[in-house]
Amino acid sequence: MKAVWIAKGRARSLLVVFNGFGMDQVSLSGLSAPEHDLVILQDYRSLQLDQETLEQINSYPSIDVLAWSLGVWVYSLLAHHFVAKRGMRVAINGTLFPIDRQRGIALPIFAATVAAFADPSGAGQAGFYQNVFAERPWLFPQRVRIEQHQELCYLQEQILKHQSSADYVSPERGRGLFDKAIVATRDQIVRPSNQKLAWQGLTTIQEVEGAHYLFDVLSCWRDIVAN
């Protein structure tokens, strides 16, 4: 996992963003947090954060967390690192059950996406971007397709491994992990109905008109935590 610092040392509050699969800081260029320092965590070919980054993050008196798409699941594995500096925690267009027919993405569809990123023509990658960003090609990440394929293969392996354990599928898991889950009404990556079912009884659900990429509608952290 890589950490990209967008702003450091200017504020006492830090916003930690768990990016979506295959994304980079270019994809989040529309997101602003003027009252925070900002670090983006991404490239999940590893699910470990190095000690230096953890120490830098936990040096802040106040830490807020924004998790998008598969970053929601990644944050759930690392949440214990952030409990001492509790702030607002928001999930956007993701669930704690990423590979799940009713509460996430059905396994055949997830596997087909993995296969699409293996296509050397790049057609599968382009199709995925279209579903995420719609008509916003300037937000496409500057990532190498082969590395994205490695990332998604690793995520699929780790998600299935974790979801096979009995405690993982407990209905109690995830209660209190997020203060709010935002669900886009036109999400073409994770069905809105699946997201709402996944969060039912776990946190407050807020529906927002938009697609899987919502940072054009919700461009400022203050807007995201409102309501």
> Helix proportion of residues, in percent?
25-40%
Characterize the overall form. globular
Helix and strand element order: EEEHEHEHHHEHEH
Structural class: alpha/beta
Helix count from the secondary structure assignment: 7
Span from first to last CA? Answer: 32 Å
Number of strands: 7
Strand order, largest beta sheet: 1-3-2-4-5-6-7
Contiguous uncertain segments of 5+ residues: none
Beta-strand residue fraction:
15-25%
Give Rg in angstroms: 16 Å
Q: Residue-averaged pLDDT, rounded?
A: 92
**Largest sheet data:** 7 strands, mixed
Description of the structure:
- With 227 residues, the chain is of the alpha/beta class.
- It has seven helices and seven strands, in the order βββαβαβαααβαβα.
- Helix 3 (107-117) packs across helix 4 and helix 3 (107-117) packs antiparallel against helix 5.
- The longest helix has 19 residues, at 145-163.
- It starts with a strand and ends with a helix.
List keywords for this structure.
227 residues, alpha/beta, seven-stranded mixed beta sheet, 31% helix, globular
Structure at a glance:
This protein has helices spanning 51-57, 70-78, 107-117, 123-133, 145-163, 192-199, 221-225; strands at 2-7, 13-18, 37-42, 62-68, 89-92, 180-184, 204-208. By secondary structure, it is α/β, with parallel strands linked by helices.
Topology of this structure?
Elements: E1 2-7, E2 13-18, E3 37-42, H1 51-57, E4 62-68, H2 70-78, E5 89-92, H3 107-117, H4 123-133, H5 145-163, E6 180-184, H6 192-199, E7 204-208, H7 221-225
Parallel strand pairs: 2-3, 2-4, 4-5, 5-6, 6-7
Antiparallel strand pairs: 1-3
